[in-house]
Design brief:
The chain has 428 residues and is an alpha/beta fold. The protein is built from twelve helices and 21 strands. The structure holds 5'-O-[hydroxy(phenylacetyl)phosphoryl]adenosine.
Length: 428
């Protein structure tokens, strides 16, 4: 049931005591870095965990500004790995790990996979990108730690993915939710029914926002359980929060990070149950401690205890990022709201993109959807009716009037990494 029963089920008051100790150690370690030596110079040991709210925030801009080494809190000789997340502009953010950091990351990753039901006899196929992206290597070491035979196949090449699944009896897969949909279509084209022809049991899906509806669709297509997995390079990578068998929110490992939710405008800390921006403090990292990191991810902490017995609090599915929010003629919309509507339309395949353009000083929102050949074989008139139906539903979900169009299955751009759903063509 548990990878590390004692800590996973410890009373929350005990976890908080541990957090205070680990946070105070982290503050001292962080002060060895150039960035925090200044930022925390007047901070002394905290007396209770609530005092975390007195510490300054750290932002993505801080990390970029501290490129390359201002956040490093140990001698370079202690560092054994670097990961980096690519930014579209400016310096990338770089994250460093000591050998101990990698071990503790592998450990929480193993915890996640175990909580979802993976065991050492499982065959694990890792379709996430290996390299600077943390998805591949992060869970690779967690899976080996757990003892699964690990196939480090990396992303793309759906035929080869399927061949490995068939020949090695893969049971457990780490996969982007958008890629899970595309992989299924490739299998179908080749006459393979994953429910009958493969031994798949568990998918770990994450790294990009997705709806509950998409998760259910993936479970249905493959006949398995898909578990939501949340993480970010700045804290480590995958493994930060993960669903247990209840599939109702993700446990955030509170002996690894301290979560807070803030109002992104006022920066006020919000109580459990209220939605806002997730702020994380890494309390078990040596090379690069990060304090009160503003993730820009919108979620809430779920207040109730979990039936699985784990006492680490859960966060809700990520609703979007503060910087993902689209403002269409003054109305705020998150891409996930559009996905939610599309997922409930059987004739729509699960691949779509959103385009925003500007005409005569008005924003125009268009949604291009691949048609699901299996579910739709109507006339042009039927297609027109379907378009109208989706437009009406999108309007009621989002409050704006998008224009829907259909394209053939397999024709929308397919990224090897995280799906790019939104194309904002407005002049900035
Ligand atoms: O995406 C780490 C990861 C790899 C997580 C594999 C899960 C599985 P980054 O590339 O730094 O790291 O991107 C982090 O991706 O701040 C969220 O905005 C988004 N994200 C990650 N997981 C989820 C999820 C990896 N389950 C950023 N749901 C985060 C929604 C997610 N968004």
């Amino acid at each position: 049931m548990f990878w590390q029963k004692e800590i996973e089920t410890a009373p929350h008051s005990e976890i908080q005591k541990l957090q205070l100790r680990m946070l105070n150690d982290t503050i001292e370690r962080a002060k060895k870095s150039k960035f925090y030596s200044k930022k925390l110079q007047n901070v002394n040991q905290l007396k209770n965990i609530e005092q975390i709210q007195e510490l300054p925030f750290t932002t993505k801009e801080d990390l970029r500004g501290g490129f390359p080494y201002d956040f490093l809190a140990v001698d370079l000789g202690e560092v054994v790995r670097l990961h980096s997340s690519s930014g579209t502009t400016g310096n990338p953010t770089v994250v460093y790990h000591t050998a101990q950091d990698l071990q503790s990351w592998a450990n929480i990753s193993a915890r996640c996979m175990y909580a979802a039901g993976a065991r050492k006899n499982d065959i694990f196929q890792n379709t996430m990108g290996y390299g600077l992206f943390t998805g591949g290597l992060g869970f690779h070491y967690g899976a080996e730690r757990l003892g699964m035979m690990t196939i480090p196949i990396g992303p793309g090449n759906s035929k080869r993915q399927t061949w490995f699944m068939q020949n090695f009896g893969t049971t457990t897969v780490h996969i982007l939710p958008s890629y899970a949909v595309r992989l299924y279509h490739s299998m179908k084209e080749d006459g393979i029914d994953p429910k009958k022809d493969l031994k798949l049991k568990i998918f770990f899906i994450g790294a990009e926002p997705h709806t509950e509806e998409l998760r259910r669709e993936i479970q249905e297509l493959y006949g398995l359980k898909a578990f939501n997995s949340y993480g970010l390079s700045e804290i480590s990578g995958p493994g930060v929060a993960f669903e247990c068998g209840e599939q109702d929110g993700m446990h955030i490992w509170e002996d690894f990070v301290i979560p807070e939710i803030i109002d992104p405008d006022t920066l006020e800390v919000l109580p459990d149950g209220q939605e806002g921006e997730l702020v994380l403090t890494a309390i078990n990292r040596r090379a690069m401690p990060v304090i009160r990191y503003r993730t820009r991810d919108l979620t809430k902490i779920l207040p109730s205890p979990c039936a699985c017995g784990r006492t680490h609090r859960k966060i809700a599915r990520i609703k979007g990022r503060t910087d993902d929010m689209m403002i269409i003629n003054g109305v705020n919309i998150f891409p996930i709201q559009i996905e939610k509507t599309i997922m409930n339309i059987p004739e729509a395949s699960k691949n779509y993109i959103i385009e925003i353009a500007e005409k005569n000083y008005m924003d125009k929102l268009s949604v291009k959807i691949e048609i699901n050949d299996e579910a739709f074989d109507g006339t042009l008139e039927d297609l027109e009716k379907l378009k109208h139906k989706i437009e009406t539903e999108l309007k009621s979900e989002t409050g704006v009037s998008p224009i829907v169009s259909f394209v053939d299955q397999g024709t929308l751009p397919a990224a090897e990494g995280k799906a790019k759903r939104v194309y904002d063509l407005r002049k900035k």
